[in-house]
Structure to design on (949 residues):
């Protein structure tokens, strides 16, 4: 055993297991299986030009070396990113805990009650601080949240505004936010007007407005008159509000805004060179059918107990497709959990104390600077003061402060701003002040006047927040640690058992990949530091871009999109920009197969494209004849085709090159959805096949953890002709950016270190082995299950790709739905595979390369046992009204009660297979009443009894 070979740690199948699987598959070698699975004409890619694989120890040394090239300065840059203190209990028990970071999106609510409660806490924090009753469970970052608000308000225009297409953005909004909003507006045909909110002329051509609170240079403006006048003109307003400032400032709802958005990064989430961190989105109740992202709601289970679930999912892009008002798929759940727990740990009084301390220090700094002769802005502020100096003095200031490893924010016109945060201790404050004294060559003078808050009386917060008991009970570390552990134990994550979600790739997130995220050299870097302070990041990100381009067979990469859905949208926008540059901006048709991810049509509409659906044949393949007809019909306006490869049906279309040729011949570009890239790596690639652009889900193929539904990165890789149209890398002062999809230059840069380590430790041979094993495991499960269930969509050799679809529709006549199977799997200790996608009534199973033969067998045994339970209903042993499948999941409370009203035994309910007793998982609630939760939308921490009437 070569203990320095990372692949044997990442890949679950050893040599002995491999021989057993090959025997089951009736093949001699893995290569023979690959040749039976992938079409011959897409195989044959050259060996990838990647560095030699590193051991885990050497990878940590490399990461430490790269981290050492980042300079951890004291950064007072602000501009939407602040230093923060991650409480150690949150760092240890959540951020570094696989029980939290390997969890999946909580579609199966009964085994997600822990993270659902943590997200309900988050929503309550946002609701209390913004004053709005409706909030979601996070978005990607502040820029994308603002763009989502733009889209939502555009779609929500009333009849009097149906022809209005202008959206006002205050020049006081962060430029990176303006850039993202402008990009979103391009696709939707909205005109963005940037200007002074104090001089804005209201007219009927505007439908919405975006304001920053406090403003980009720190000023606190009273927007109430602006908002009131906007309301009179039926213009809806969005307030981008600093979440910590809202602990002391009047909230957006009280100011009259319609929507509040912002970042929760300063609630204990590390800077991470710009991400990931959770955005928030809160709004009036009238938008509940169109608010983007996920809403966690309160419902009840079949026993009448309070239970949580994702509410109003009919709003989501998976269901609404091209009619969706958002394509958001991944949120930032892990970071939202951290932010919510930050509020739980500190409570209302703690947040007020932190905010007040920052504000007090900012006032002190302002008064001292004024007293020694600096020209300081007199506008009210929260944490950021602005001084005016000559260009010569600005240069000298920069030289002096950087010599002592301190960053301020320097602008043109001699403006310098200083943003304080909770990391500014008394000692750091004294150092900061001493440098200004040194610059003026003067001595410290004690201030004579008392320090008063620098917030107008009418903008001081008077309303309570975080009054629920959860924000009052867990302020000691002991109690907080136990609370977090109680929530963790309510969830099934990858650290408990296999999560076999098709198209979601829940593979190992190795500890060596994760450890560096806790190092300050990676997590404490502001995204807008000078380049010489981020050389480690820039080197790592550049190399990762090169590796991803090599793996996909393309010419270049942008890491900016911070989710797969954003990657889809970014790829299509790049295509649109390319077509415009060619003088073919009129091309606006996207051909999308029936089997596509729901985000595909939603992304296409956001990019300004009209969706034309292409049929799939009964065997799952693209209908070539239908494609030919539609490509010919729309050849003058065809912009792109969107292909998922292998398809969402779980196999490789043999006609993919013909599909690409047809679209190219009609003048369109080929976008490949890289959600299933883990079945291609090192054997073929989108570039080799002939596509023009693809996005990658780094939280799937390249090992970034799902974190309960985020963080994610969705980079795009493009052919050479599209390189000039990739998203621009922004500097904070640059307000003229072309395409922009994230608030920070490199999106969720910190978690990119995970994928970098994954590639460096596996190398070419390891990546190839991972791909082969994913295909091997899927075909093994297919063989194990084929004699018990119908397997849909195999190729001519009877093979599937890296995932398979099991059909449960034949049991519908017995009264059994596929959702019932998902719930029964919980009794066996498994998270259900993907339910009813891409085919209703089916399960899509993806075992990944990380699972052992023993775990694959346990999962197969569970499904085979469930088939026997179905047979017992069919033969009349049990009725559909009283069977283990319909009553699943069974809780410990139910199994240990004095009364038992079922015809089947307690043992059959709880321990249907012998090995389950050794690792029994008990759901904390029974089957949840989804309809009740949708009828009674509660998305904050209120007890269910308050709403039962």
């Amino acid at each position: 055993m070569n203990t320095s070979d990372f692949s044997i740690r990442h890949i679950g199948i050893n040599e002995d297991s491999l021989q057993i699987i090959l025997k089951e598959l009736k093949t001699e070698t893995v290569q023979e299986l690959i040749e039976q699975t992938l079409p011959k004409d897409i195989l044959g890619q050259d060996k990838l030009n990647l560095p030699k694989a590193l051991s885990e120890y050497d990878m940590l040394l490399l990461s430490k070396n790269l981290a050492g090239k980042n300079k951890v300065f004291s950064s007072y840059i602000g501009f939407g990113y602040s230093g923060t203190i991650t409480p150690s209990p949150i760092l240890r028990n959540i951020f570094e805990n696989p029980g939290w970071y390997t969890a999946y999106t909580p579609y199966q609510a009964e085994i997600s009650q822990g993270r659902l409660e943590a997200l309900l806490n988050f929503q309550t924090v946002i609701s209390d601080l913004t004053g709005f009753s409706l909030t979601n469970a996070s978005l990607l970052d502040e820029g994308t949240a603002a763009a989502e608000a733009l889209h939502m308000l555009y779609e929500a225009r009333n009849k009097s505004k149906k022809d209005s297409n202008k959206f006002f953005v205050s020049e006081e909004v962060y430029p990176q936010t303006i850039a993202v909003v402008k990009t979103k507006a391009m696709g939707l045909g909205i005109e963005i007007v940037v200007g002074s909110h104090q001089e804005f002329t209201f007219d009927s051509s505007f439908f919405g407005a975006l304001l920053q609170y406090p403003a980009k240079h720190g000023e606190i403006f009273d927007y109430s008159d602006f908002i009131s006048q906007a309301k009179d003109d039926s213009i809806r307003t969005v307030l981008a509000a600093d979440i910590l400032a809202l602990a002391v400032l009047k909230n957006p709802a009280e100011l009259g805004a319609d929507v509040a958005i912002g970042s929760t990064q300063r609630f204990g989430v590390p800077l991470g060179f710009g991400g990931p961190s959770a955005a928030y989105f809160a709004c009036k109740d009238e938008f509940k059918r169109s608010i983007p992202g996920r809403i966690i709601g309160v419902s009840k289970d079949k026993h009448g107990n309070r239970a949580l679930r994702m509410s109003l999912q009919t709003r989501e892009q998976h269901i609404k497709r091209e009619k969706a008002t958002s394509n958001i798929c991944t949120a930032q759940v892990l970071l939202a959990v951290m932010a919510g727990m930050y509020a739980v740990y500190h409570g209302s009084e703690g947040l007020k104390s932190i905010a007040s301390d920052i504000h007090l220090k900012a006032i002190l700094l302002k008064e001292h600077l004024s007293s020694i002769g600096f020209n300081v802005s007199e506008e009210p502020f929260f944490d950021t003061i602005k001084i005016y100096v000559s260009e010569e003095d600005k240069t000298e200031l920069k030289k002096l402060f950087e010599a002592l490893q301190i960053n301020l924010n320097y602008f043109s016109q001699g403006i310098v701003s200083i943003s304080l945060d909770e990391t500014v201790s008394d000692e750091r404050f004294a150092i900061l002040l001493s440098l200004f004294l040194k610059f003026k060559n003067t001595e410290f003078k004690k201030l004579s006047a008392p320090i008063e808050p620098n917030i107008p009386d009418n903008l001081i917060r008077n309303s309570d927040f975080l009054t629920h008991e959860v924000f009052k009970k867990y302020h000691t570390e002991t109690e907080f640690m136990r609370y977090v552990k109680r929530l963790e134990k309510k969830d099934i994550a990858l650290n408990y058992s296999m999560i076999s979600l098709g198209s979601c790739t829940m593979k190992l997130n190795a500890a060596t990949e994760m450890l560096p995220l806790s190092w300050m050299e990676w997590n404490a870097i502001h995204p807008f530091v000078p380049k010489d302070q981020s050389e480690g990041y820039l080197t790592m990100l550049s190399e990762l871009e090169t590796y991803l381009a090599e793996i996909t067979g393309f010419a270049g990469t942008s890491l900016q999109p911070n989710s797969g859905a954003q990657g889809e949208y970014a790829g299509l926008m790049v295509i649109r920009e390319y077509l415009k540059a060619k003088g073919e901006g009129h091309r606006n048709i996207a051909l999308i197969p029936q089997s596509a991810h729901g985000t595909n049509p939603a992304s296409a509409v956001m990019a300004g494209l009209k969706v034309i659906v292409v049929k799939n044949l009964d065997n799952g393949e693209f209908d070539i004849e239908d494609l030919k007809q539609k490509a010919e019909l729309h050849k003058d306006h065809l912009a792109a085709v969107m292909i998922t490869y292998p398809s969402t049906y779980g196999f490789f279309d043999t006609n993919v090159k013909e599909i690409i040729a047809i679209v190219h011949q009609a003048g369109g570009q080929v976008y490949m959805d890289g959600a299933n890239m883990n079945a291609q790596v090192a054997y073929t690639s989108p570039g080799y096949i002939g596509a023009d652009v693809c996005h990658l889900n780094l939280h799937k193929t390249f090992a970034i953890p799902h974190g309960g539904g985020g963080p994610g990165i969705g980079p795009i890789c493009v052919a050479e002709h599209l390189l000039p149209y990739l998203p621009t890398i922004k500097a904070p002062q640059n307000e003229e950016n072309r395409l922009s999809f994230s608030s920070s230059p490199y999106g969720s840069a910190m978690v990119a270190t995970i994928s970098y380590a994954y590639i460096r430790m596996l190398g070419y041979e390891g990546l190839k082995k991972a791909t082969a094993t994913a295909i091997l495991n899927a075909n093994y499960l297919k063989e194990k299950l084929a004699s018990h269930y119908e397997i849909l969509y195999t190729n001519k050799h009877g093979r599937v790709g890296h995932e398979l679809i099991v059909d449960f529709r034949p049991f519908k006549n017995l009264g059994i739905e596929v959702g019932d199977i998902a719930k029964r799997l919980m009794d066996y200790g498994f998270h259900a595979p993907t339910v009813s996608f891409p085919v209703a009534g089916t399960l899509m199973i993806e075992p990944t390369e990380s699972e052992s033969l023993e775990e694959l067998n346990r999962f197969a045994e569970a499904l085979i046992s469930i088939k026997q339970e179905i047979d017992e209903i069919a033969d009349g042993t049990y009725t559909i009204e009283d069977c283990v499948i319909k009553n699943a999941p069974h809780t410990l409370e139910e199994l240990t009660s004095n009364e038992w009203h079922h015809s089947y035994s307690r043992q059959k309910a709880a321990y249907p297979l012998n090995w389950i007793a050794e690792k029994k998982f008990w759901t904390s609630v029974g089957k949840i009443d989804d309809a009740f939760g949708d009828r009674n939308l509660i998305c904050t921490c209120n007890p269910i009894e308050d709403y039962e009437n």
